[in-house]
């Protein structure tokens, strides 16, 4: 079980790197095609946007995993007992926020799947972009719960 969960973390890191690489590479290709070859690629904007959304949201999940999410540094100087309590409160706040994030993310995906709205030039439903919200949120929930349980 632990090994399987460990692979989930590696998969998340790999996908984050993949989406970042795709964003950078496609942006470079688009610049070359648009300004050097004078032949803009109409689909590249949408693909860059999709990969950037997934990169940012998976990166947010990784920040929760590594406890690098937004926090108040002044609290790090507190006594150990107070510090542990504040860290638990911090993770509870993250947990509640992410619960709301996941819930409304699922609603957004459901509503957009029903509408069938597509992205510009691509035959891809907007719901697949919005799916990054609940999927990354589930990763965040997992890492927030893990942070609360494992000290």
TrEMBL record:
Entry's localization field: Cell inner membrane
List the keywords (alphabetical). Answer: Cell inner membrane, Cell membrane, Membrane, Transmembrane, Transmembrane helix, Transport
Which residues does the UniProt record annotate as the domain Tripartite ATP-independent periplasmic transporters DctQ component? 24-147
What's an example Gene Ontology biological process for this entry? C4-dicarboxylate transport
Using the record, list the residue span of the signal peptide; answer none if the entry has no such feature: none
Q: Name one GO molecular function term.
A: transmembrane transporter activity
- Name of the protein in question: TRAP transporter small permease
Organism listed in the record:
Paenibacillus sabuli
Starting at the broadest rank, the lineage of the source organism is:
Bacteria, Bacillati, Bacillota, Bacilli, Bacillales
């Amino acid at each position: 079980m632990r090994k399987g969960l460990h692979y989930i973390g590696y998969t998340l890191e790999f996908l984050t790197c993949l989406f970042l690489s795709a964003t950078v590479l496609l942006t470079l290709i688009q610049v070359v095609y648009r300004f050097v070859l004078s032949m803009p690629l109409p689909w590249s904007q949408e693909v860059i946007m999709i990969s950037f959304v997934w990169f940012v949201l998976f990166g947010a999940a990784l920040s929760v995993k590594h406890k690098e999410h937004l926090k108040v540094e002044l609290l790090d100087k507190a006594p150990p007992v107070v510090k542990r309590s504040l860290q638990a409160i911090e993770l509870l706040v993250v947990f509640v926020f992410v619960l709301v994030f996941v819930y409304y993310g699922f609603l957004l995906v459901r509503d957009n799947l029903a509408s069938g709205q597509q992205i510009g030039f691509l035959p891809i439903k907007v719901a697949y972009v919005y799916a990054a919200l609940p999927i990354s949120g589930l990763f965040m929930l997992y890492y927030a719960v893990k942070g609360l349980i494992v000290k």
